[in-house]
Batch of 2 targets.
Target 1
Amino acid sequence: MNEQLKTNDPNTNPKRTIRSFVLRQGRLTKGQEQALINLWPIFGIEYNANSPITFDTNTPAVLEIGFGMGASLIEMAKNAPNKNFLGIEVHKPGVGACLMAIEENQLSNLKVMCHDAVEVLENMIPNHSLDKVQIFFPDPWHKARHNKRRIIQPKFVQLIYKKLKLGGVLHLATDWQHYAEHMLEVLTQAEGFENLSPTGDYIPRPDDRPITKFEKRGQNLGHGVWDLQFIKK
Ligand SMILES: C[S@@+](CC[C@H](N)C(=O)[O-])C[C@H]1O[C@@H](n2cnc3c(N)ncnc32)[C@H](O)[C@@H]1O
């Protein structure tokens, strides 16, 4: 795991210049550190561009990008044992925390990866393999000069489109109104996607999406929340 992370360090990998994250190597708790050693081999999937992931075709597959500390992903996986979940996050303490919670809850339907989700999608996720892609509260990069780092961009949405099955859904949520408007514009213009909002814009938070850690922080600051769901037609 450590070696792999060093060689794939997204901050130093010269192949991509604009990234949707800055790697904050926050301190690991003892528990997270142990989980990254002991639980990673069981619930973790190493990044390997030459080894595409095989999804069970009889079970719906849900991909979450940027799960943070993983609490809401754990909740969703617990509530939907009939679905398989894959979570991708670059923040190591978050991956460690999620591994601990997988074991604590004895989940057999959730695996995690610690790598740039763009590269994972490009190189490891087969086309037409996902029933759902969810990205909750992606970094808003709210300064105009940083807007280009937002993960939701036309090219990225096209990549997700390729990976979704027909009838698959992309679910986004943000607490930053300008980002919500940007998401709506990008998705509305994306060929092949149809907005599931009856009003042609946003939807109320669906019952199956737990409130996330980042969302709670925003709510305490008085932020609004915008959910968007688009289906691959
Ligand atoms: C603002 S946080 C939100 C976390 C969580 N979804 C929540 O709502 O509490 C965004 C997360 O996305 C992760 N992230 C950003 N770009 C990513 C990428 N390309 N691949 C994987 N994770 C990414 C960041 O490390 C960060 O933890």
Target 2
Amino acid sequence: MDWSKWIRQLHRWLSIIFTVTVIANFIAMALGEPPTWVVYSPLLPLFLLLFSGLYMFVLPHAARWRGEPARERAGPA
Ligand code: HEM
């Protein structure tokens, strides 16, 4: 599988996990004082989102630095 496609897929799934942990925080806070591990649970996915996101951000620039011609964004498949 293409490396950049794999990173994009990872970013997509991390965003879902991150969103779930944020929602879990709202629910836990509504029920009272949330446990520390719930409060900090969004940080790991957010951290990984940052790196996979920065990687995707740099991709088109990196291609230009390598002297590759500009191309359309890769679609599905
Ligand atoms: C933390 C720093 C983040 C950076 C630097 C970042 C960066 C990026 C970049 C560069 C793209 C590709 C855009 C393109 O198609 O050209 C992207 C896509 C995306 N990002 Fe992030 N992102 C971050 C965090 C997040 C968060 C917090 C969420 C949601 C909770 C998120 C959800 C998504 C989704 C759903 C896509 C589309 C992926 C796909 O193609 O299916 N990102 N992001």
